[in-house]
Amino acid sequence: MGKIVFFEDRNFQGRHYECSSDCADLHSYFSRCNSARVESGCWVLYERPNYMGYQYVLPRGEYPDYQRWMGYSDSIRSCRMIPHDSSGSYRMKIYERPDFGGQSMEFSDDCESVQERFHSRDIHSCNVMDGYWTMYEYPNYKGRQYFMRPGEYRKFSDWGATCATTGSFRRITDF
């Protein structure tokens, strides 16, 4: 079981709310989120209710202000715990075209630069076969984050992106 504590103010101050399961609407518990402590598990935080908007993947640790999780604002409105995958297996295949078309490449490890490894920054579709992953807008694990669970993503909007440009991705291994 996971546990995350949200705080309205920086440095774990102000009103707080403890959460140990998925929550589609956190707005009734606090008005803003400026810091968080992940006591157990790994979590995805969402900017809007019902698991929408910008996404932030937070492994166990302390985040004294929202910039520490690469947040764009103090707005966190829903959260989801990432299930622990005990298999330790990671496999993802990326494609240069929608509906699994064009050039493809399979990965089982982190990719710091999609451009260097795939020779393109555009990923239009993806099949996550094993494990949980985070895609990033820019190389070196920077920019907007997208949580990828096992499944087929026929177009980039299926994982919440507004364009196909992807800079990097990595496995979620910190539980």
UniProtKB/TrEMBL annotation:
Protein name per UniProt: Gamma-crystallin M2
Matching InterPro entries: Beta/Gamma-Crystallin (IPR050252), Beta/gamma_crystallin (IPR001064), G_crystallin-like (IPR011024)
Claim: Repressor is one of the keywords in the record: no
Family from the record: Belongs to the beta/gamma-crystallin family.
Function: Crystallins are the dominant structural components of the vertebrate eye lens.
Gene this chain is encoded by: GM2
Domain (Beta/gamma crystallin 'Greek key') ranges: 2-40, 41-83, 90-130, 131-173
Name of a matching Pfam family: Crystall
Species of the source: Acipenser oxyrinchus oxyrinchus
UniProt key word Repeat: yes
SUPFAM superfamilies to which the protein is assigned, alphabetical: gamma-Crystallin-like
Keyword entries, A-Z: Eye lens protein, Repeat
One Gene Ontology molecular-function label: structural constituent of eye lens
PROSITE patterns: CRYSTALLIN_BETA_GAMMA (PS50915)
GO biological process: lens development in camera-type eye; visual perception
